[in-house]
Write a structure and sequence with these properties.
two-stranded antiparallel sheet, metal-binding, 6% strand, mainly alpha, 6 helices, 4 strands
Length: 188
């Protein structure tokens, strides 16, 4: 594994602002645009400037476009950070391809909603996993709640919707327990 080292910016300072040839790197860095237009951006800019010319509007230069894109990225980052830090980021998003990890059905119905683990992102029906009431806020599956990644006793696959055996020390996928006829568990 290659380890890269970069000197933190707070260590690169100069206390002498009156010196001949002095350049304030902090001010210079703050004024530098961090977004660089790629070929797709330049092609789009040429198309839009052609349309602006036809409409008699002022053309958009590359520097302005870079600064606008940098501001868009900054605002997007701020909003994403805020959403992840608050409950806004916990809302369930609808995806047509989502299926229950146990029964493999994409359908949900009243009082049998599909619930997502906020750590490992598995999706299960309430009835399939034995969730009596969907909790407000975040929900963690049993393995994530305990902070473990156990091995299934019935198959080699790790992860997925699992429940402990009667001993409480061994784990099985709920789907393995349901679909393997030799397994009998009244709590599933």
């Amino acid at each position: 594994m290659e380890v890269m080292f970069s000197t933190p910016r707070k260590w690169i300072r100069s206390g002498c602002s009156g010196a001949l040839g002095y350049v304030d790197t902090q001010t210079l860095a703050e004024g530098t645009c961090r977004y660089d237009l790629n070929d797709t951006d330049v092609a789009w800019l040429e198309l839009i400037n052609h349309q602006f010319t036809q409409m008699g509007m002022v053309l958009l230069d590359e520097m302005t476009m870079e600064r606008v894109m940098e501001e868009f990225e900054r605002r997007c980052y701020d909003r994403m950070s805020h959403a992840m830090a608050t409950e806004e980021g916990l809302g369930m998003e609808y995806d047509e391809d989502v299926v229950c990890d146990i029964c493999r059905s994409p359908d949900s119905e009243e009082n049998n909603e599909m619930v997502f683990c906020d750590k490992c992102n598995i999706c299960v029906h309430q009835a399939c996993y034995g969730i009596l009431k969907v909790p407000k806020g975040s929900w963690l599956c049993r393995t994530c709640d305990l902070g473990i990644l156990p091995k299934c006793q019935l198959c080699p696959k790790k992860g997925g919707a699992m429940k402990p055996t009667r001993s409480g020390t061994k784990w099985v996928h709920v789907s393995c327990a349901l679909w393997i006829p030799e397994v009998m568990n009244p709590n599933l």
